[in-house]
Amino acid sequence: MFVTTIERTNEQLNQKARMSADQLGLPYVERKKRTIKQLQAIYEKPCIVIGKARTELYGTGDDKPLFFHPNMAAIRMKRIERGEADPFLAITGLHEGMSLLDCTMGMAADAWVAAFAAGEAGRVTGLEVNPYIHFIMSEGRRHYEESGSRYKDALKRINMVQADYSDFLREAETDSYDVVYLDPMFTETVEESANMSGLRGFASYQDVPEEAIMHAKRVAKKRVVMKDHFRSHRFEKFGFTVHKRKSAKFHYGVIELNY
């Protein structure tokens, strides 16, 4: 992995790229009007590209970068404002003042919707194990907070933490969140999730450890929720009650806790 800038750069962007490289412990490479393909052919590594409006993450040989975008989160929040149901909120039972730990934040769509629903009195923590995805999301949020969107306050309320959820859950206090949520990468590709293609090259495919579920049940006060492929073995393995969604390629599983 290395850090560079957009092609039309300036000294301010060059300096930001150098600082970002130092922050991530990565080498900085001057762009020198070379294309991303040319740079990757030389260094044979993925790269982070620092721009004026957004920061991009390119996998080796990828034409389409991964970058922060409101995407479906904004659409979902607009629907919620119109009084429409959101399956994620329905299954988590999340509402004003509640707290949620998103163990697999990724592009933060669910964490963002959760922060929107929980409001200022609520609390949402999003964990991302990959330091480069975490960096892209943190930078993207900073740019978005400068926009005039009415959803920026909800995004700002997400506590984005770069951490492995197994380690975080092991150290977390008992009953410290109302809901613990897991959305592990599916073992089967879902065609409807083609917009996730850029994420797949950097996401963690480690299976969900049994210890993590044990601690999730300790950390959650109300319920543990997992989103997974409809053919996943993990629902049965860990004792989740499956809420099947007609014609959907993924279902939600719930472990209700007796509090």
TrEMBL record:
GO molecular function, one term: rRNA (guanine-N2-)-methyltransferase activity
Pfam name, any one: SAM_MT
Record Gene3D superfamilies: Vaccinia Virus protein VP39
InterPro entries: 16SrRNA_methylTrfase_J, SAM-dependent_MTases_sf
UniProt xrefs under PANTHER family: RIBOSOMAL RNA SMALL SUBUNIT METHYLTRANSFERASE J (PTHR36112:SF1)
Protein name, UniProt field: Protein-L-IsoD(D-D) O-methyltransferase
Organism: Pradoshia eiseniae
